[in-house]
Amino acid sequence: MSGAPTSSGGSAGPQPLHGGALALTSVALALGTFMQVLDTTIANVSIPTIAGNLGVSADQGTWVITSFAVSNGIAVPLTGWVMRRYGAVRTFVVSVLLFTVASLLCGIAWNLSSLVFFRVLQGAASGPMIPGSQALLLAIFPPSKRGTALAIWSMTTLVAPICGPILGGYISDNYSWSWIFFINIPVGLLCAVICWRSLGRSETATQKLPIDMIGLSLLVVWVGALQVMLDTGKDADWFASTQIIVLTLVAAIGCVAWVIWEVTEKHPIVDLSLFANRNFALGVVASALAYAVFFGNVVILPLWLQQQIGYTATWAGLVAAPSGVVAVVLTPLAARIMSRIDARWTASFSFIMFSVSYFMRAGLTSDASFGAFVLPLLVQGVAMSFFFVALLTIALNGIDPQRIPAASGLYNFIRITAGSFATSLTTTLWDRREALHQSRLAEASSIYDPTMQNALATLHGIGVPDTQAIAILTRNLIGQAYLLASDDYFWLSGWLVLLLIGLVWGARRSLSGGPVVGGGD
Description:
- The chain is mainly alpha-helical.
- The protein folds into three domains: about 200 residues, Growth Hormone, Chain: A; about 55 residues; about 250 residues, Up-down Bundle (Growth Hormone, Chain: A).
- The protein contains 21 helices and two strands.
- α5 crosses α6.
- The longest helix has about 40 residues.
- The two termini are about 30 Å apart.
- The C terminus is likely disordered.
């Protein structure tokens, strides 16, 4: 649907703030990001509790996660169009308020169907929150403090995924699961009120843009099919399932059709011309791939700790918590360094630290101490403190200020989608590597093997019956297979991240505190 856009009021947008107003507004914008990211992870560990209370199976309960991911995945890339149509401040504040209302509805849901429906509303409402807070933070800080703005945004993005599982597990264990949604209400109201009072009078210029209905429809179809395929693929045994094959074909054909339509449409719903900027294209690809590896490790480590090593959900969360603390402490320092040093160097340093962390994990054993598990995560915290700021600086270098919301929405959409891919593919790869190692270990083991005979004799000596003794040894064999599968994944992660260093050096020089360099190329 095409037509000439017309201007409709607005101003040049929010101007840089100072002093207490800057600090308060920055915290409020950061809270918007925190709430959205928190809600992508907080429900994960609560699914068994939610499913049990609503009288459904755990598999059915996973639709609480899938429904949010699908609607959020569709809404995020629309941010640029919506903000140009209605204004960045208005879009962000309304998004936060709708998200808050949807959180209330999720908390009072009376069955699975109502909860899934309200989660769809919550995911759709939250679409503009991450790119909106990012764009507004960049607007209210002076250009020389751009790195600080990105640091504040990245700190909340780093901390929320770590807090989510811990909070979700604690609330589910000690209170009603509804409180994982109710805690958003006071935070959302505070965020909306502060942002509107501080920025409501300096709305960005708006345009009465025509709605690209065909582009929007294609986006809904292929992103929805992709998210459902990724979330249900493992349980359906992937391409052994006709449903997964159909969803994959719909996603692939829909994506190709959508791209062709968007690059030829006069007023596209998503501005794909941003990829003409070399820094944006390389920054997005490097960020998505590195985030996929990072998120895969975020998924695998807690699973390994809980399923094979005997950690509770809370203790598995506490293993990761120190990395978030390190990242929060070091991110302001990283922002200051990046105002003077080319972001390609800091991105390379981040990738090296990530690889060191993954290689350290590859040396862990099932009987490692709590501290041994925490140490690689501390190194990861150093990597995280530079990662988001560096990659965002590279990606947004050369982007015109008025296109920042669109660029931010597209950047975060691809990053979030990469995380969805990582979650599905990582667990599948982990299970299949475990099956391979288990079969090889079983081939190398025999009831007549002297080592096996000694182990059985030891168990018999302490009164363990023969059947139970064999079960214990089988359990140990499975645990060893998962250890080897985890080591495989950690080694692979380390090498993949190192390879990404070459990608960022294809971009132009970027400084977070300096002027943007060049235009699209």
